[in-house]
Amino acid sequence: MEEKKYSKFIVPFVLLSAISALSFFMNKYRFSARHFVFPAALFILPILFDRTFRPKKLFLPSKEGLKLFLWVTVATLVFYPPLFFAYNMTFLHRTIASPTTQELMKAVTKGLIAIAVAAIPEEFFFRGYLQEHAFAAFDKKILKIVSLKNLFTSLLFGLVHAIAFLDITRAATFFPSLLFGLFTEKSRGRIFYSVSYHVVSNILAFILWTFIK
């Protein structure tokens, strides 16, 4: 019985290891098609190799998650920019400069492109597959807010980003990942709002960086 219980983690573990190794080597050797291969792998591998995973209505919105999404999005837009500038100016000694219209448009374009190559495939794999499928049984809450499945997924999310980009600071994606996971839980396992917030975060980050010199 115990063997059967833990056998369900074998395929997700193998797929996660394969994706981590693939992203590491593609970034290390600057593989030209990495921005297309990696998101494709996030979609294809779970569907192809895990027959127990059958995503249904995964991308549809849910009224249960809308209120939380709106509150967190507004809070992010209000509080994150001043914190971002304060950190860069105080600790990194960078300066603020007015970006050109072309720079702003380029930032927005990058954010929109990131929807296809990052937000959707990453949420599909980490929230839709790992959190709500592989770790579904670990729904016990910590401090009545974060579930174990969200915590496990977010730790892996940060780890894979650090490995993929060869940069330990990328592990900080653990923190927004907790929000992505919370949106998914509030939406009964759907990833519409986690994708949406992922998109908002990416576009906001790209825009803010155009103001830093």
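(ticket continues) Second input and output from the same batch:
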Amino acid sequence: MRSLGEFEELAPSQRFDAARRAAEEWFTHLGKGGTTEAVTVRTACDRYVEHLRATKPASPVSAYALKRRTDLPAGASHTVRAADDAQARFKNYVLDNAKFADTELSKLTPAMLDAWRRRLRERPTRSGGNRGEERTTSSLNRDMTCFRAALNLAFVDGLVTSDFAWRGKLRPIKDADRRRELYLDKDQRRRLIEKAPADLGAFLKGMALLPLRPGALAALSTSSFDKRLGVLLVGQDKSGRDRKLKLPPVTAEFFVELARNKLPGAPLFARADGRAWDKDAWKYPVRAAVEAAELPAGTTAYTLRHSTISDLVHDGLDLISVAQISGTSVRMIEKHYGHLRSDVAADALAKLAL
């Protein structure tokens, strides 16, 4: 026996019709092979977390990144599973509303999902370097994607026979990761390095020489660099995979000096006190160096990564190689930097002139 509720929120004259519609929907659900179990939003989220634990391997993160993720379970290790990430997102943005969390999937409506999405948009972020700040479209997409995946799994598993409620309302917002526009030419990069303190200057020079994420560069230890082969092993990165970069002689020479007289486990890019760099440590000194160098407002350490990738693409390096060096996908390189290929294409066409 299944109770469809008492419909107390409705006027007495409306309850019979509402109960009849609910009964018809329930029998339609059963007729399509739906489960007799009362599956709620909470159940769907819990099942998705268990699904990720069984199917998704852990991804390595740096100690600093782990410290920033205050939303992760206590005692999380330096390998964070997708399941832990999903569980934290659900806890913060889905299951925090008990009424919504206990809503049965079969009773979800587009209006409910639209209201949830609007509430999420208005809430500040709770993790990462931008914790407490206004939620960006990219952040909204990541949280919606996780929740949509949980609901889709319930649909695929037959726990609910329609995905109509969320099919449109949880659709990702297009062009959330807009193309990066702020670019520093080589003279500007040199000026930034010169205006920075010596320890920060070395870190910024590393970013100007290699298109790595700042966190990946900061995570390098002396043992990451093979002086004999001139090879750098990048092991801590968003891509979650180790990769080896063969350095040109001029770059290798810079890394040889960095590694000189350091123990294998010491940070390759160390602050003046010997500790590794992290976002909290470089954020304000970089801002001060930007002002001293009279560079455009909004310039950050990440601007150097964008600028070096832009140069590689503009100078004609194939996109697969750019993606491999940068630790990202070809799709992302095409999306953010594909427009720079137009000059390369024009030069190639010019060579065809008779």
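Agent notes: Residues 186-350 form a domain with the hpI Integrase; Chain A fold (CATH 1.10.443.10). Residues 59-80 have pLDDT under 50 and may be disordered. Closing as not reproducible unless the customer responds.
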